[in-house]
Amino acid sequence: MMKETNKMKKTVIDYNTDLTGLINIDGKKLPINNAIKGETLEVNYTNNKKTLKVDKIIEPSIYRITPPCNIYNRCGGCKLLHIKYEHQLELKTNLVKELFKDFKVKINDTLGMTNPNHYRNKNQIVFGFDDKRRIVSGFYEEFTHKIVNFETCYVQDEISDNIVKTIKDLFLKMHIMPYDETKRRGLIRHVMIKRSKALNETMVIIVTSQDVFPGRQNFIKALLAKHKDITTIIQNINPKATTHVLGDKEIVLFGKGYINDILCDCKFKISSKSFYQINPTQTKVLYEKAIELANLKKDEIVLDAYSGVGTIGIVLSKNVKKVISVELEKSSHIDAINNAKINNIKNIQFFNDDATRFIINLANKKEHIDVVIMDPPRKGSDEGFLKAVLKLKPKKIIYISCNPQTQVIDLKYLINDYKITYVQPVDMFPQTHHVETVVCLERK
Ligand code: SAH
Fold this sequence. Notes:
By secondary structure, the protein is α+β, with helices and mostly antiparallel strands. 24% of the residues lie in helices and 30% in strands. A seven-stranded mixed β-sheet has the order 9-8-7-10-11-12-13, covered by helices on one side. A seven-stranded mixed β-sheet has the order 18-17-16-19-20-22-21, with helices on both faces. Strands 1-5-6 form a three-stranded antiparallel β-sheet, with no helix packed on it. β10 and β11 form a beta hairpin. The mean pLDDT is 95.
């Protein structure tokens, strides 16, 4: 296709499923970043570009604010920083309403945060070079492998951001070079920081391309001297040409190799590789809602599927007779077993298996399950799992999802036998287009 660029005046007519704006060009609805419904914009339309960009705002929306971030236009992280927070919540509720419209159920207002900033407990920074071969550290630009340099971030933890700054300065001073993806040379690939605000424990993970890390001891000494909050430092080695951040091999350079956190009055051990919810304030809101909807009885048996480090099952275990948890990822499974021990919980069993294979087995053995709590990854669950749930016939299903689009597809398998009785969106990821939902289903 020939590249053609036209400047045009357009009104934003609607939102796409990722809450980017939509404008009409030649009868086609095209997505445009950083645009609010109802606004009139000047747009540079290049016919071979994936996403359009706003050139000038002619009539701004009443919901528009100046984004509190100086790399917002380039960074692929947040998408809604230009929209007032209360309106972000309304947009998320509307999105869920649209997705769930065939079910004809009430959608509750999205539960938001009082302070929707610096909420993340995990920072992930990529190190590399820019076009001019300058060392950069930050985030990937949307749809590219270009790194946008950053100093502060509106949603990440501020203590962790300061640690990243020190790390970058030390790398420069000590001539420790970032990894170059194209030449496959250099050492530092990523820096990941996980933090427990509740216990003030901080884990720094330096992802390197090889085992040999010249100047390692001096680097650790200098870093610890500057940041008393750091409780453990890990070197993760990832030699592969891959989009995965972490490799298999790890060396603990300082401390115990993990951190602890407190969530819903329980203590959790978190290691570098295990899954752990990134917004602790809202995780509490989410879990409390899920547990309230489950309305558990002392004699009941609960299946916690896709259980991560065992958090939901452990938090609700005191309300029931027994919890059975299943998780595929080995390191999360091991952490889950430890977490039950730390909290002195004896009525929970953990299985390291594929949730579908595991639940089919339970259904074939005609196990009795009163409530299924499921919290699958973004791609959702699958037909095998859902059919086995129907065979198990639990009284209730609590379906937690970080992607209501795949959740809706899955719910269609269940609604002949189950009635959707409650839908609660929760804002786990303020300033981004993501929304989490808790859905309660009761057997007809
Ligand atoms: N309920 C947990 C984790 C939710 S994230 C929490 O609230 O923290 C989804 C989890 O599903 C991840 O831990 C992931 O490792 C796990 N997972 C992904 N595919 C799976 C599968 N096929 N079977 C079991 N677990 C799976």
